[in-house]
Amino acid sequence: MHNEPLAYRMRPLTLDEVVGHQEFIGQDTALFKMISNGHVPSMLLYGAPGVGKTSIANAIAGSSKLPFFALNATRAGKKDVEDIVQEARISGKVLLFLDEIHRFNKLQQDTLLPHVENGSIVLIGATTENPYHDVNPAIRSRCGEIYQLQHLTVDNILMLLQKALLDTKRGLGQYHMVLTEEQLQKIAIAANGDARKALTLLESIYYAGDEVDGQTIASDTVIDHLISRIGVYGDKKGSHFYNLLSALQKSIRGSDTNAAIYYLAHLLENGDLVAVSRRLLVIAYEDIGLANPAVGAHVLAAIQAAERLGLPEARIPLANAVIEMCLASKSNSAILAIDAAIARIHAGQTGEIPHHLRDAHYSGAESLGHVGYQYPHNTPIGTFGGWVKQQYLPSELTNVEFYKPVIAGEEKRLATIYEKLQSFNQQ
C-alpha cells in the first residue's frame, strides 16, 4: 500500500485531469489556452478547503513544465523565499505555489515581490479567506486574476471517486474495491463538495472493508459510521463564517424559514454561540423593527435562554427566534432613519440646538436665553398623551424627515400617528 494519502496521490498531474472548475480552467477558457501556449500568469485562488486550489496549482505546474516550488506561508521563512529567488535567477523563471498566502508577512513579501513583478517568479497564491480583506494589496496588485473556486458538485465528486477506484497506479484499482452506486452517492453527498474529504473517506472505507473472494467490500453500517465522523468546515474568524452570518440575516430578511434554519444550524455546529446571538439581536431591530417591536424582546429572551442552556440545547430557543423573525412583518425604517441622520452629520449639515431645548437646570441659564420650552405633558391631545407644537430640530434642518414609515404590521398604526403629528406641525 502507498504511504501517501489517497487524496494526495490522486491530485491531477495536468490540466486535462482537473475535475470540475471548467468555468475558469476548462479547455475552452482563456486561462487553459494561455497555459497550453506556454504563458502562466500569476493568480490568486480563493475558496474553502478541499475545493481544489492545490490540485489546480499542481496541474498548472504539470502542464507548464516550469520548475515548480510549493510553500506554506504559515511555515515558510525568509530563507525559503530567498532559495526560490536564487533558483529563479538560475532557471530564468519558476512557478511558486504559496498556500495560505494571507499569512505572508512583510519581510517575506519584500523579498518576493520584485521578482513576481519582473516575471522571474510566477506566483499562484491560495487562500481560504477573502483576498480583498486578508491578502496584502501589494500581492493582489501583482496577480492578474482572482479566481473564486466553488465547492465541487456531487457529480464531480462521483467522478473523482470512480477515478480513484479504477486507477491502478495512484488509486485503489489494484485492490479491487467494490461499492454500489448507492454507497458512492452517499459518500459523494457526505463530502459536501470537498474532494479531500471524499477521497479520505473512501480510503478509510477501504481499510474498514472486508475481503471477499479477492474483492474489498464495505458494509452500509461501516460507511454510515465513517460519514458521521466527518467534521463541519468553518473557521470562526474566517470568511466562510462571516458568509454564513450574512446568509442567515439575508434569509431571515427574505422570510425564507428553511434557508434561515439551515444557516443557523451550520453556524451552531461551528460552536460560536456569541456571534450568532449578536447577529440575531441585530436582525430583530434592523429587519423586523417597528413592524413588530415585540420581536426584539422575544429574541433577547431566546438569547438569554440559550446562554443559560448552552449548546446543544441552545439551538431550541434560537430556532424559535429565527422562525418567528422569518414570519414576522418587516420594516427597516429605523435603521434608514438613523443612518440618514448620521450621513447628514458626517456631511457637516448640522445646526445650533434651539435655545428652548438646551439645558436650563442651573442658575444663569435664563441669562443665556435658554428659555421658552413648553412641557408637552401639560397639553393632552386625545388618547395620545401630551403634545405641543414647538421647534425641535435646528433651524438649518427644519422640515427634514429622516424617518419614513413602512406600512407593515404594527408600524401601520405608528405611521398613522406620525403622519397626523406631521400635519399638526404644518398648521
CATH class category name of the largest domain: Alpha Beta
Q: What is the share of helical residues?
A: 40-55%
Number of helices: 19
Largest sheet: 5 strands, parallel
Distance between the termini: 90 Å
InterPro entries: AAA+_ATPase, AAA_assoc_2, AAA_ATPase_RarA/MGS1/WRNIP1, ATPase_AAA_core, DNA_pol3_clamp-load_cplx_C, MgsA_C, P-loop_NTPase
Family: Belongs to the AAA ATPase family. RarA/MGS1/WRNIP1 subfamily.
Protein name: Recombinase RarA
Organism: Lysinibacillus piscis
Task: Give a description of the structure.
The protein is α/β, with parallel strands linked by helices. The chain folds into four domains: 21-148, Rossmann fold (3-Layer(aba) Sandwich); 154-227, Helicase, Ruva Protein, domain 3, CATH 1.10.8.60; 239-327, Zinc Finger, Delta Prime, domain 3 (Up-down Bundle), CATH 1.20.272.10; 333-426, DNA polymerase III clamp loader subunits, C-terminal domain (post-AAA+ oligomerization domain-like). The protein is built from 19 helices and ten strands. The strands form three sheets. Strands 2-3-4-1-5 form a five-stranded parallel β-sheet, with helices on both faces. A three-stranded mixed β-sheet has the order 6-8-7, with no helix packed on it. The protein is elongated and about 95 Å long. Residues 39-151 form the AAA+ ATPase domain. Keywords: ATP-binding, Nucleotide-binding. Belongs to the AAA ATPase family. RarA/MGS1/WRNIP1 subfamily. It comes from Lysinibacillus piscis. This is Recombinase RarA.
